[in-house]
What we know:
- By secondary structure, the protein is an alpha+beta fold.
- It folds into three domains: about 5-60, Roll (Structural Genomics Hypothetical 15.5 Kd Protein In mrcA-pckA Intergenic Region, Chain A), CATH 3.10.290; about 65-130 and about 220-240, Alpha-Beta Plaits (2-Layer Sandwich), CATH 3.30.70; about 135-210, Pseudouridine synthase (2-Layer Sandwich).
- It has helices at about 10-15, 20-30, 120-125, 145-155, 190-200, 230-240; strands spanning about 5, 30-35, 35-40, 45, 50-55, 55-60, 65-70, 100-105, 110-115, 135-140, 155-160, 160-165, 170-175, 180-185, 205-210, 215, 225.
- A hairpin with a 2-residue loop joins strand 11 (about 155-160) and strand 12 (about 160-165).
- The model has no long low-confidence stretch (mean pLDDT about 90).
Amino acid sequence: MSEQGERLQKVMAHAGVGSRRSCEDLIEQGRVSIDGKTVTRLGTRVTPDQIIRVDGERITFDESKVTIALHKPAGVVSTMDDDMGRESLAQFVEMREERLYHVGRLDTDTEGLILLSNDGDLTHRLTHPSYEVPKTYVATVEGQVNRSIIRRLEEGVTLEDGFVKADKVKIIEMGLPNSIVEITLHSGANRVVRRMFEAVRHPVVRLVRTEFGTIGLGRLKPGRSRVIGGSELAALMKSVDL
């Protein structure tokens, strides 16, 4: 093992695994691996190019990489720089030194959770269709949604660019003039949730994305952001086999 780099227990503690002492215990118990090899020696040092896992979950060592959860307000375009001078995502993270990129998009009228990152591997996997990362939305739609509409969305509808179906749909509030529906799907097609509800004749009035993969919006207010780290980041990375 290289004598360069940081001590393993220090890296683990900094990544939010636990206290330095508890991290030492994990190492001695054989629950930590580096590049696929279990390590038990407390003097082990690691470098940013090595892959560290605790109980099979990867932890991040490269401090130059950052992933941020942002609550995008409605009316903001999902780009870091807009040529037309519209409000963009950059204004909400302008104090950060890293050059961040948006992970996928939300249409301008949709609000809610969007991820920003400078981790190219993570961004690629979160947006690639083969990883089928689920996204959950809460939609306020016109009219009274009934169980037959839920079945249609889960069985699938045909849009102009192909067939798409929801993974799960749940009625939160059923009534007039509007109903509130939670919908989860892994399609990343443009405006797909709005188009699905239009196909079943219940146009969207308001749309909020509440979850992206393992990350939840929680109590994050519009325009606010937070850094994703520790076990939360580990779970996100694990969900796309990193």
